[in-house]
């Protein structure tokens, strides 16, 4: 539990730095609200982690993997990636070039996600049952949410007095602290060779991988931005209809592919493929019920994701300072989140999963409705504390329950890939819509936006009776 608290802390620190903190930084530099919404699409990287998750199941990092094992090797590489990306974001904190800012934000999101994939796969391998998952998930989320609060509140308070560059440098240093701890840990049971040689080899390999990832990301970004410019997409564009259309494509694709997948024999190429096999296995086991599962997981955390990127700019617009927001995101958010995570992790060991999912959806929706209430109150730090506490308690409770639920859907033969797929898809629709959040606020206002996000979270409850009757197909 201590180890998974540490891993959660290492993954949570950078998350706010490419989401909420970045949104406030861009707002301070005069970036338009619609463009702030576009930057929420950086958070799509975690939803696409199934693309590279099979690589983490199959390959080791030279040096790191031989001495510390496959999972820890990838975690160490990811921490180096997180550290280098945050240093780069500190160096470009003036946001003189938004494409450059986006490049390093994407890299930060990529390496943060890679760290989560490796840690999640290890967790599912070590703790496969519901009773075991509850406590370990709570420990992991305690660390994760503690780090998010530390990064969110600490970065804002530092930025208010010392500037954005200092804020990113301080969080980068804190995020790197687990690396020497991992280096000092005992080697993997199958590891061999000296620690120094393994570390040197791993560091050299990491430099090459980090440079290659930066070059590939820059090339892809150049192409994407060029295509967007040709399509006439700018800060004044209303992209919501297009985003909603894109959101429907995965469901249509799954429906078309399911008949063939269900008929595929055990030795079929699509089931034995290293790249596709883990994902095909999920649909082979659940059949058409997989579409219902995908709709549910897309809706369950909808409110939390939609609120994440625009809640802080809204609060700042109400007249609160960065320091006041930072204080609310420190002790108040930490305690509320810890209580929510702990209660959710405890109840999944005592209640039926369906009941805990229902309660999680309700408290998450209340947190979103709290922002509507906050917008109509006078500017008072105590009132801000109440709204923040409701939001963070709901996020913590629903997050703990949701992680356990998704973990139980996974086939233990493919823990890394399938969990990455489920969590990635769970946040695909919400994060696509979050990118259009600025345009939505321009049409329906902040009140309508947060009311809508809360109602969408509640809508997930309608699926729970049907979900409780779904059972996976037996292995052939």
UniProtKB/TrEMBL annotation:
SUPFAM superfamilies: MFS general substrate transporter. One of its GO terms (cellular component) is membrane. Its main location: membrane. It is found in: Membrane. Coiled coil: none annotated. The chain crosses the membrane at residues 33-52, 73-94, 100-122, 142-159, 165-185, 197-222, 242-261, 282-300, 330-348, 355-376, 382-408, 420-443, 449-467. It is a multi-pass membrane protein. The keyword Membrane applies. InterPro entries: AmpG_permease/AT-1, MFS_trans_sf. PANTHER family: MAJOR FACILITATOR SUPERFAMILY DOMAIN-CONTAINING PROTEIN 3, SOLUTE CARRIER FAMILY 33 ACETYL-COA TRANSPORTER -RELATED. This is Permease.
């Amino acid at each position: 539990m201590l180890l998974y608290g540490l891993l959660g802390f290492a993954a949570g620190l950078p998350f706010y730095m490419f989401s909420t903190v970045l949104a406030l930084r861009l707002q301070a530099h005069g970036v338009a609200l619609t463009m702030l919404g576009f930057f929420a699409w950086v958070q799509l990287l975690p939803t696409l982690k199934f693309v590279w998750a099979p690589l983490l199941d199959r390959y080791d990092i030279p040096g790191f993997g031989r001495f510390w094992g496959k999972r820890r090797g990838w975690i160490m590489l990811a921490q180096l990636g997180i550290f280098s990306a945050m240093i780069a974001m500190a160096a470009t904190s003036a946001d003189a070039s938004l494409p450059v800012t986006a490049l390093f934000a994407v890299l930060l999101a990529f390496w943060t996600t890679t760290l989560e994939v490796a840690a999640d796969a290890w967790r599912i391998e070590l703790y496969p049952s519901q009773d075991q998952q509850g406590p370990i998930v709570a420990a992991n989320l305690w660390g994760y949410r503690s780090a998010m609060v530390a990064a969110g509140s600490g970065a804002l308070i530092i930025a208010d007095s010392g500037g954005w560059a200092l804020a990113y440098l301080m969080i980068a240093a804190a995020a790197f602290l687990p690396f020497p701890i991992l280096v000092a840990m005992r080697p993997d049971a199958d590891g061999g060779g000296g620690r120094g040689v393994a570390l040197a080899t791993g560091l050299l390999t990491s430099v090459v991988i980090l440079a290659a990832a930066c070059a590939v990301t820059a090339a892809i970004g150049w192409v994407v931005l060029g295509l967007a410019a040709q399509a006439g997409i700018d800060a004044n564009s209303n992209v919501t209809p297009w985003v909603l259309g894109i959101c429907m494509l995965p469901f249509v694709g799954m429906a078309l592919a399911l008949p063939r997948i269900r008929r595929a024999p055990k030795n079929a190429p699509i089931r034995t493929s290293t790249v596709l096999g883990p994902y095909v296995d999920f649909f082979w086991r659940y059949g058409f019920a997989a579409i219902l599962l995908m709709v549910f997981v897309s809706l369950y955390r909808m409110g939390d994701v939609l609120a994440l990127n625009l809640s802080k700019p809204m609060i700042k617009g109400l007249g609160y300072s960065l320091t006041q927001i930072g204080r609310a995101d420190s002790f108040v958010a930490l305690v509320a989140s810890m209580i929510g995570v702990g209660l959710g992790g405890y109840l999944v060991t005592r209640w039926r999963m369906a009941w805990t999912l229902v309660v999680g959806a309700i408290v998450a929706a209340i947190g979103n409705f709290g922002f509507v209430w906050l917008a109509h109150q006078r500017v008072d730090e105590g009132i801000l504390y109440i709204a923040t506490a409701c939001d963070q308690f709901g996020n913590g409770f629903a997050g703990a329950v949701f992680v356990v639920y998704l973990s139980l859907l996974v086939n233990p033969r493919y823990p890394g890939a399938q969990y990455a797929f489920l969590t990635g898809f769970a946040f695909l629709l919400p994060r696509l819509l979050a990118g259009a959040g600025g345009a939505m606020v321009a049409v329906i206002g902040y009140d309508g936006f947060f009311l809508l996000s809360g109602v969408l979270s509640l809508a997930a409850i309608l699926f729970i009776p049907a979900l409780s009757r779904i059972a996976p197909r037996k292995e052939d």
